[in-house]
Write a structure and sequence with these properties.
Among the domains are: 14-75; 151-234 and 246-352, PRC-barrel domain (SH3 type barrels), CATH 2.30.30.240. It has six helices and 17 strands. The chain has helices at residues 14-53, 59-68, 90-94, 330-335, 360-365, 367-387; strands spanning 152-157, 163-164, 169-171, 177-186, 192-199, 208-213, 217-219, 228-230, 249-250, 259-260, 265-267, 273-282, 288-294, 305-309, 314-318, 321-325, 345-350. The strands form two sheets. Strands 1, 2, 11, 12, 13, 14, 15, 16 and 17 form a nine-stranded mixed β-sheet that branches. Strands 3, 4, 5, 6, 7, 8, 9 and 10 form an eight-stranded mixed β-sheet that branches. The protein starts with 13 loop residues before the first helix and ends in a 5-residue tail after the last helix.
Length: 392
């Protein structure tokens, strides 16, 4: 290597062919320009001719001719690409400074390939924790309303345990029916005393109402025959006279202190009318258990019957007249169940409300004087003991 000129033949092959390629390109561009100008002149001439002939339909033909003229352009043959490689001589390979390695030539990527766009990174969803909701205490449940106070009490009995007195058949011990019960008498303590019987005559002729002592009858509510039997007195004991046989007494000879029960009116304490007695229910021990009251036209406004407990009946004397009274009020009468012959007997009684308790202030103030008196007595005793001294 002398004069800064390389004699190793390492000049690039591109430098030898560059002028030839430039000349060829100029000649090709000139030929193309001449051809395009000729084609343009031809198109102008054809257009003028068509305009002269006014044949607009020949425009596609002219366009086809113009396009076919493009095939007259000469095709340029690309110059061959010659690769030159230089192999250094053995004497040149070992001499000289070590050359730096040439960088690796990367093959150009084809222009047609399009780099795919990088996939978007998935966004990380950030979940913020919800703030804890404040604990809401449930509203307190309203207290259950207290049950309504009981205003009546009910006692259930069956029809084979009780029998109605009104119009019940009365028979003798041998079974012969002698009449029917129509009424009863009670005294001032509401105890039964007499039974009024309608003795039957012949074909209804000679019927008469008489009274017999209440103790002269036996009651059998579940009997298939007559429920009331007129029984003779028991045989006398030795050394005692026999009891007289009960004889019927006229109605007019009934004692004045006895009162009839059937069809009598029963009232409340305030004098308001409750109803009318239509029957008496008697058990097998000859004890009345209930009064059947007709509530028609009473203050309760009911047209039905109820069985009221016999023990709640009070007999009072007002203006020298006997009156029947029971402690029912209007609300209790409305709540009383209905008496029906085909249903179980529900005997009702009024419930008296409990008295209000006494105020606590009076009870707490009562023991104060006793405690003060006790304290005084205890105080006096030590004083007396301290004052007493033994004699010297």
């Amino acid at each position: 290597m002398t004069g800064g000129i390389s004699h190793r033949g390492d000049a690039s092959p591109i430098s030898y062919h560059a002028p030839a390629r430039a000349c060829r390109a100029d000649s090709a561009f000139g030929a193309a320009a001449r051809l395009i100008s000729g084609v343009a002149a031809l198109i102008v001439a054809i257009a003028r001719m068509l305009r002269a002939l006014r044949l607009t339909a020949s425009l596609p033909v002219a366009a086809a001719l113009a396009l076919s003229a493009c095939g007259l352009m000469p095709k340029q043959v690309p110059a061959p690409i010659v690769e030159h490689s230089y192999i250094p001589a053995p004497e040149e390979a070992g001499s000289g400074e070590p050359e730096e390695p040439l960088p690796a030539v990367q093959a150009p990527e084809p222009a047609s390939t399009v780099k795919p766009a990088p996939a978007p990174k998935p966004k990380r969803r950030v979940v913020k924790p919800k703030p804890p909701e404040p604990a809401v205490a449930p509203p307190p449940e309203p207290p259950e309303p207290p049950p309504p106070p009981q205003i009546i009490s009910t006692r259930i009995m069956q029809h084979d345990q009780l029998h109605g007195l009104l119009d019940a058949e009365v028979q003798r011990p041998e079974g012969k029916v002698v009449g029917r019960a129509v009424d009863m008498y009670i005294d001032g303590s509401a105890k039964p005393k007499l039974l009024m019987v309608n003795l039957a005559g012949f074909l209804g002729v000679g019927d008469r109402k008489v009274n017999f002592p209440w103790t002269a009858f036996r009651f059998t509510p579940n009997s298939k025959t007559a429920p009331i039997t007129l029984v003779p007195p028991p045989p006398p004991a030795k050394g005692k006279p026999a009891d007289p046989v009960p004889k019927p007494q006229p109605i007019a000879e009934a004692p004045a202190n006895f009162t009839q029960l059937v069809d009598s009116t029963v009232s409340q304490k305030n004098g308001a009318r409750i109803g009318r007695v239509v029957d008496v229910l008697v058990d097998a021990q000859a004890q009345p258990q209930a009064l059947v009251l007709d509530l028609s036209s009473s203050l309760a406004g009911d047209k039905r019957h109820v069985a009221a407990n016999w023990g709640d009946l009070h007999v009072l004397s007002r203006n020298k007249q006997w009156q029947l009274q029971m402690d029912f009020n209007d609300a209790q009468l409305k709540a009383a169940p209905t008496y029906a012959p085909e249903q179980p007997i529900k005997i009702v009684s009024p419930v008296v409300p409990a008295p209000a308790p006494a105020p606590a202030t009076a009870a707490s103030a009562a023991p104060a004087p006793a405690s003060s008196g006790t304290a005084g007595a205890s105080g006096a005793a030590p004083a007396q003991a301290s004052g007493a001294r033994p004699a010297r």
